[in-house]
Design goal:
The protein is α/β, with parallel strands linked by helices. Helices cover 55% and strands 9% of the residues.
């Protein structure tokens, strides 16, 4: 029986094989007795190993390691505002600078300088030749018996050897660089470490000076050309100004100043003209109105008119008094009347002079305005001509400014770099000079070598004793493997409810994912009533389908896990292929319903699903879908199985259904394989699901199982689940590894629902 809270048929330990394995091995007590019997031999072997290790250590040439420490601060001394190389501000940039300086220590230039200073090319340890006494005596007198090629190869050999003797490492999260140099001579090791540190500092200073000198040379070479270019630009500007009469201050030209002044004078003249016109019009209006002519502002402000008006008023007063006392023909009254008329005439004559003066002022203002207007028009024409010529002028001025800025920038930078040649801005320094090492680096101490040799000798002796004890006990003939099989022994009496089943095919199968399709997960429709034309809707087919608006059900979560496992098994960039298989010939409709709901679950998550009816014998799914409507032409309408009529049915649920072909299993299997290959090559779908094939499977049906990435078994809850599962695994044979899930269908039979639909209809 298969128990679904444990892996399917896990391999059980065979109780009969335990005694055999115990008898074939060693017990701890026997091993201790064996080693005790050979204790003398093992102790002697351990001592011999210790002596050999000590002897080997004495024969090896010791190596000594000397270390010097450098502090390489990437934040160099800022002696000037503008440096040749920009500084790194972030931590990663500073770390990269320190690592680059650490690599610079082992550069060929630094190492060659060390070789030249310490004469390593003549040291036998670093590739130098060991000369005899006669060659040494001749060398004192400057006589050398070496060719030019040998003289050139000497430093190169020393460079290669020195590279092997040096190790430069940087301490984490600091600016400290350790320079390690090993040598067979402790004094030489310390000397080389210190020489390497000094050579690095010298090279760093020389590189800065060289960079500053090269920059100064390049800048100075450009200064002469830039100076000549500036002079030519200034000459061209001066000649153009003289030719076009551009005279003025630095900001504006004289013509522009004159035009501005003329515009202001013309505006003032127009204002004066308007004022004179208004004054004249007022005087004329007062005269025409036959009112008091002396009421104008000019008459009121004139002392003459004021005196005449006072006399006129006094005369009229006396005239009124005489008229009241004397008759109209009285001489005094006539004389007073004549005096009043004379005063009125005198006032009118005075006002006439004001009117004539206002008229003259108006004429003069108009003439002045006209002359200013003519002068302004002349200046405007000259300004237009000057504006056209100033376009070229501004271009020449921009050229002069650009040339002057570039020349001044190069001149200033050249002077700065010239002064930087003698400055040492590097902040690298030696914080720890190498001292003569007192202990050797290799080989280790004699006590350590003796301990290692003692342990190796003892272990070798122990292994030899155990091997010598084991070899006579092992038979030469190969043992039968019957006792090592994982197949459990068949029961002595099979259970009455099920016959015995083979177990070898399921001995090592892990438990697949289990999903329960319950009545609470689905909804049922009356297919005979709700079927409509247009795009087919699989939820109206009359089968139980997943409810809408429930994204977190147990069945949907289990389907997501199965699709995730299927995606891991399928190749990248191609849609995975899932085959849904049933428990037998009687469960084809349950399998088709489960297949449809698996596709709906994937479509709910946004996947583009293609369902292919691979059950060429019963084609339950095709019969149901053909009743919904005709196939629709779509992007995937080229997918077909063998005939032109079997084209993909595009539904309103995001699923395309490819009906089955009625024919032989070989023909149907080949057509389905071609459809799968086309779907994978075009990339129009995210998941391909095969409904079927029906068990038992033929050779052609097994080709579909081989083309699948994963298998899902549908088991009705009213059947023997464990028995059906064992039948499926046995029938799968070598394809049982592709089983990724089991769907337990707890839905009510569809036959009763179909009868109820007919009654309702």
């Amino acid at each position: 029986m298969l128990v679904y809270d444990q892996p399917i048929n896990p391999a059980k330990p065979d109780d009969h094989s335990a005694p055999a394995r115990t008898a074939a091995g060693f017990s701890v007590l026997e091993l201790a007795r064996l080693l005790w019997r050979h204790r003398v031999m093992m102790a002697a072997a351990a001592l011999i190993g210790a002596c050999l290790a000590v002897a080997i250590g004495k024969s090896l040439t010791p190596k000594y390691l000397a270390t010097s420490q450098l502090y390489v601060d990437p934040r160099e001394l800022q002696l000037v505002d503008r440096e040749l190389t920009p500084r790194a501000q972030d931590v990663s940039g500073l770390a990269m600078v320190v690592e680059s300086q650490a690599r610079l220590i082992t550069s060929n230039r630094v190492l060659l300088q060390v070789i030249q200073d310490t004469h390593l090319d003549k040291d036998p340890e670093f590739g130098g030749d060991s000369r005899g006494m006669m060659a040494s005596l001749l060398g004192l007198f400057g006589i050398e018996f070496r060719s030019a090629a040998e003289n050139k190869l000497g430093p190169m050999a020393a460079l290669e050897a020195l590279n092997r003797h040096i190790n430069v490492k940087k301490t984490d999260r600091s600016f400290i660089v350790d320079i390690e140099v090993w040598s067979y001579d402790p004094v030489k090791a310390a000397m080389l470490a210190n020489a390497l540190s000094n050579a690095y500092l010298t090279e760093s200073k020389n590189s800065q000076s060289t960079a500053a000198r090269r920059a100064t040379t390049d800048l100075s070479g450009r200064l002469k050309e830039l100076k000549e270019r500036l002079r030519n630009a200034e000459n061209a500007l001066a000649v153009y100004k003289a030719q076009n009469n551009f005279v003025g201050t630095q900001d504006t030209l004289i013509s522009d100043q004159q035009l501005s002044a003329s515009s202001q004078r013309l505006a003032a003249a127009r204002a004066s003209t308007l004022d004179a016109q208004a004054k004249y019009d007022q005087i004329e209006a007062s005269r025409r109105a036959a009112t008091d002519v002396g009421a104008i502002p000019e008459a009121l402000q004139s002392p003459t008119v004021a005196n005449l008006r006072a006399q006129y008023a006094e005369a009229r007063k006396h005239h009124a008094e005489m008229a009241a006392e004397l008759g109209p023909l009285h001489p005094l009254l006539r004389q007073m009347t004549q005096q009043v008329d004379d005063l009125r005439r005198t006032i009118n004559e005075e006002v006439e002079r004001f009117a004539q003066s206002a008229k003259n002022d108006l004429a003069r203002a108009r003439d002045y305005e006209a002359s200013l207007n003519n002068a302004l028009e002349t200046q405007k024409r000259q300004s237009v001509q000057m504006s056209q010529a100033s376009v070229r002028l501004r271009e020449l001025e921009r050229d002069v400014e650009a040339s002057r800025d570039v020349y001044q920038s190069f001149l200033k930078r050249s002077r700065e770099t010239e002064e930087q040649e003698g400055l040492d801005t590097s902040s690298a320094r030696i914080i720890g000079e190498a001292t003569v090492p007192q202990r050797r680096m290799f080989p280790p101490a004699m006590s350590v070598l003796a301990m290692i040799g003692f342990m190796l000798g003892g272990l070798a002796a122990t292994g030899w004793v155990v091997a010598a004890e084991r070899l006579p006990a092992d038979p030469v003939e190969p043992q039968p493997v019957k006792s090592q099989t994982t197949m459990p022994a068949p029961p002595s009496k099979p259970p009455p409810e099920s016959p015995p089943r083979p177990q070898a095919a399921v001995a090592l199968i892990e438990k697949p994912l289990i999903a329960q399709l319950q009545e609470s997960d689905v909804m049922r429709t009356l297919g005979g009533i709700l079927a409509i034309g247009g795009i087919p809707d699989v939820t109206r087919a009359g089968w139980p389908t997943l409810r809408a608006g429930l994204p977190l059900t147990t069945f949907l979560n289990a389907m997501r896990e199965m699709r995730a496992m299927l995606a891991k098994r399928s190749p990248a960039e191609v849609p995975p292929v899932m085959v849904v298989i049933g428990a037998g010939a009687g469960a084809n409709e349950d399998r088709a319903i489960a297949t449809l709901n698996v596709g709906l679950a994937a479509a709910r998550d946004g996947a583009r699903v293609l369902i292919i009816d691979a059950d060429h014998a019963t084609h339950v799914l095709s019969s149901k879908m053909n009743g919904l409507g005709k196939s629709q032409a779509s992007r995937a309408s080229w997918l077909s199985i063998g005939t032109k009529a079997s084209r993909a049915i595009k539904t309103a649920n995001g699923i395309s259904i490819l009906p089955a072909i009625k024919g032989s299993d070989t023909r149907a299997s080949g057509a389905i394989c071609k459809a799968i290959a086309r779907a994978r090559s075009t990339g129009g779908y995210d998941l391909v699901i095969l409904d079927g094939p029906q068990t038992p499977w033929s050779v052609a049906d097994r080709a579909l199982l081989d083309a699948a990435d994963g298998l899902v078994a549908v088991l009705p809850a009213d059947l023997d689940i464990n028995g059906c599962m064992e039948d499926i695994i046995t029938a799968l044979g070598g394809a049982e590894r592709k089983l990724i899930g089991v769907i337990l269908s707890e839905l009510h039979p569809v036959t009763a629902d179909r009868q109820r639909d007919k009654q309702y209809a």
